Structures are given as C-alpha cells and as structure tokens.
Amino acid sequence: MLDETTDPPLHRWRSFARLLMCFHPRVGAELYAVALGNSVYREGWNVIYPSEGSDRGRRYVRVAGGNGLHTYDKPDDVADDQMNPVYEDHAPQLNQSRAWSKMTELGELVVKRKQLPAVMVQTTQRNIDASSQRPLRNDRAKLESAAADAMRHFQAVLAQRKVPVANVFAPTIRQVLAYMNFECDGSHAANVLSWLLTALSTKFPSSLDTSTDSDRVLFSADHLRDLTFDLMDQRGDKSLTSYCEMTYLALLYGNTSILLYDRLLASDTVGPEDREILEWRRFAVDEKLAHEAAPSLVNPMWYCPVAFPESMTVFPTGEKFALYPGAVEPWKRRELDPAQRWQAVAEFSARAGSIEVAKTLDDSNCPVSPLLKKHLTGFLLARDAPGQT
Amino acid sequence: MSDQKLLEVLGEELGQATATVIVAEHPRDRQFIGETLLVAAALYLLKKYLDGFVDGLGIKKLGEAHAALALQAAKDAIALLQAKRAAVDAALREYFASLQKYRNNAESKKQGEDSVVRFLGERGVPATQAKQLAERIHAEIFNAR
Fold first, then answer.
1. How many structural domains are present in chain B?
2. Are A67 and B18 within 8 A, CB to CB?
3. Distance between CA A224 and CA A366 in Å, rounded?
4. Which of A158, A170, B7, B79 is most deeply buried (CB count within 10 A of its CB)?
C-alpha cells in the first residue's frame, strides 16, 4: 500500500490531485487560491450567481468578522449596488491557476525521484486537464453516456440466470474506483453514482419487497450520509494516506447523498413534513463536507515542507476538525519550520492504523445500502424462481 | 473543569458543522460560526440533554430551576450568552451540583442521550454521531467532577 509520508513531494502531488478532482478542477484551483488569501468574497454582503447572466441558483453571503450568514433570501435592507457580485463560472481556467503549475512541477519531481511511474503521473494530469475543460456542473452529455453504459451492463447481466447480486450493482463500485483513481472528477462521479443508485432503486421491481421506489432512494441517500459521517469520524486515528483517501471518499459519498436528497425534494411524492426532514439531512451533510472534509484537502499545502511560501501564508482552515491530527500539535505551538511540522505528521502517521479504502468498497464502505441489496436479491430470486421465464 | 470552560469545551467538541445545524432556524439559512455561536450551540444542546436526564427524577428542569435558562430556541441561547454570560455560568454550576448524586443513574443517562439523539436526528445528524456527542456531554458534566 502506498505510504505518502515516505516522500513529501509525493504527498503534495497526490494532495493536489485530490483537491482538483474532489469536485471539479477549476473549483479545486479556486479553493487553493482562497486558502492563499485570494478570496473573491468581500466584507459585507456578496451576491453569488452560478452563472453570469442568470438568476438561477442565486444566493447571498454576508461576511462579517468571526460570524456571517449564507441565505437564499435577498436581504431586505441592502441595495443591489451595495452587494459584491461573485460569478462562480468566472473561476479561472485550470492552466492559468497556481495550483496547476505547482502540481505539474511536483509531477516532474515525483517522477525524477522515482516515487511513481511517469505514465501514472502523466495519465492523472491528463485526466485532470480533460475534466477541467468540461462544464462546472451538469455535464449532461457525459452523464447520458455513463447512463447508457450502465443500462447495457444491466441488460447483459440480466440476460444470465443465477447471477450474484454484486454483479448487478458492479457499475457503482467501478464508478467509485474511477473517482478514487483520478479518472474522473467528483462532480461527474457523484452525478453518475446518484443516477445508478436511483436506477437500481426504481428499475428492478420485486414482489418480495414491500418498500417503495422512494423508500429505496431515501435509504440510499441516508446510507451515503451515514458513511460520510463514519468516514470522517474514523479517519482521525489513521495514517496520512488513509486519512486523505477517507476524506476524498467522504466527499464523493456526501455529494452523492446531497444529489439524492435533491432528487427526492424535486419529486411530487414528498409531503411538506417529509420535505423538512430531507432538507435538514441535506443541510447536515453539506455542512459536514464544507467544514470538515473540503478544508482537509487544502491543509496539506500548509504543513508540507516543500511548500514553504504557502506555509508562511496559509492559515489552517477548519482547524481541529479539518487538520490531520498529526499536524494539530505543531499548529497549536505555532511551529513555523515546515520540516518540523512534517516530522510530527510522519511520526503520528507511523503510529496510526491504515486501511486501503479501495478494498472496503464491496464491504464496509459499499455505496449500495443493505436495503437496496436485499431488494435486488429479492428481484433476482423472484425472476429465477421455477416457473418464471 | 470549571463550568465556564465546559461550554467552550463542548462547543469545540461539536465543531462548526454540528453547531451550525443546531443554531440554524431553517436549513436554507446558515450562519457562519464564530466562538459565540459555538458556545450557544453547546448551551442549547446541553439543555436538551439535561431536560431528558432529569425527566422522572423529581428535579426541576433547567429552565424551571433558573427562569433565565428557559430556552425555547438556539437563538435564545445566543441572546442570553451575549447579555448574561456570568449568570449562565453560575446557574449551571448550581444546577450541576444538584445532579451529582444521580451520576450513575442509567435510566436518566439514557433519557438524556435519547433527548439529544432525537433533537440532532431531527436536524439531520446520523444517530451514531449524535449518540457519541450525548456521551461526551455526560462525561463533561459528571466525570471530571
């Protein structure tokens, strides 16, 4: 199993890969710029537009000292021209970002130091570059292509008799692995995974199961929310590599659960009371990701010894809940020497346990909920029963 | 641990993510959490725990024993801490002293935990994490005394 503490540039290169691919490369590069103090937000009220020229998804953020507010409702007492406009699609292209130039420099270093094969570094960087060219959200063509692939898989598997249930949901595991291996970004992976889980919940009717389609989608959303919180809880006593991979997986599962809650909230089958329950669950997981998961991917820039300029500039975002536990003590004693900070991280990591996250995907971190597995098993049993054609 | 520290420790234990869902009035509006709001979230959750804990013991609830702590919502905790922090700490100190003899009452502990798990569950937090927080509250109130 890869140990990122063996070589700081290797950890730093993989940290950039996770940061750039956890949602979309341009968003990751922007997070890095913000961590270096280049925020597009201003003190006072900001109005955020996902796209310039459209009011869709508009929201408001008040930045004020230690506190602030994020809301979808326009503040009554503030004139439009007193708000700082922020257009999310104005995020710079990846090749103009500092994060990308740092990552490609590190890629050369990692190959030179023989930490990773050149082909692996080049392939990952090519994948990141290709992802950065795609829309920030809703890459419909790519999602439709993935959905068509999945439907072909379902048809091929269902043409056989006596298939293990794991074969039916195999595309979900493949999608998670593709994300973990930096073959696609998190925005795309979450959209595909939410589509797959919805399809598995609704396209395989079983007379042996009394749950409804909506029940199964909801259980899938809750299952991924629970896994997100568990991963975040359990990462605290793990090695640096395990901690980073668990965080990266939690971001995918959390974002997928948000998409599933959104799907349920948009459906006609949800009543007002259930709507509020779903909104709170969506809110709780969103907050968990925003405060404890995403900032963890920026923090490695802070304590890594080959990032001296950043280490002097960046404050540790999220503090206790987002900083690798091995980096907390040096941060508390305001240790400035990056090499000392790295040593503390490496020592903590050496004492901590490790898990290979990819190997837990068909077991403790399987994206498919137990209820959905039971439902699919019921579907297969009913279909293969004697007398069925 | 001093009672004045207890709210700070609990606030840090909650973290910004959980504190945000506790103080939010609606899941569409989220406050950015500073020190004051962390402590307010801790006080509000502590009150939830204590209300459950004393249920059935014949002890007045925190808000009945100390009228100022009759918090209806987390925003009341924010206002109270801003206006009367010293009075809150004194009231908690007095109230905790009256609870010490029940520290090993398993039924009370369970009811306190259930109250926290129910409230955080309504706010979208999974039961496993809510239960861990409830256990932490119990430990902070009783174990270090």
1. 1
2. no
3. 9
4. B7
Whether residues B29 and A282 touch (CB distance < 8 A) is answered with no
- pTM as predicted: 0.93
**Residue A85 pairs with which residues in a beta bridge?**
A47
What 8-state DSSP symbol labels residue A368? S
Where in chain A are the domains? 4-38+45-384
For B119, which residue in chain A has the nearest alpha carbon? A280
Count interface pairs A-B at CB distance under 8 A: 90
A286: nearest CA in chain B? Answer: B17
Q: What are phi and psi of A164, to 5 degrees?
A: -65, 145
How far apart are the CA of A272 and the nearest CA of chain B, in angstroms?
14
Q: Taking CB atoms and an 8 Å cutoff, what residues of chain A touch B126?
A: 222, 225-226, 229-230
Given CB atoms, is B75 within the 8 Å cutoff of chain A?
Answer: no
| ipTM for the predicted complex | 0.92
Q: Residue A25 and residue A16: Cα distance in Å, rounded?
A: 10
Residue-range definition of the domain harbouring residue B49: 3-143
User: Are residues A279 and B125, on separate chains, in Cβ contact within 8 Å?
Assistant: no
| B-chain residues near A291 (CB < 8 A) | 15-17, 20
What is the pLDDT tens value at each position of chain A, 389 positions in all? 899 999 999 999 999 999 999 999 999 999 888 888 777 888 899 999 888 877 778 889 888 766 678 888 888 888 988 999 988 888 889 999 999 999 999 999 999 999 999 999 999 999 999 999 998 877 889 999 999 999 999 999 989 988 999 999 999 999 999 999 999 999 999 999 999 999 999 999 888 888 899 999 999 999 999 999 999 999 999 999 999 999 999 999 999 999 999 999 999 888 888 999 999 999 999 999 998 999 899 888 777 766 666 666 666 665 678 889 998 888 888 787 888 889 999 999 999 999 999 999 999 999 999 999 999 999 999 888 877 65
User: CB–CB of A70/B30 below 8 Å?
Assistant: yes
- Two tokens at A264? 């349920």
Dist. CA A239–CA A252, nearest whole Å: 20
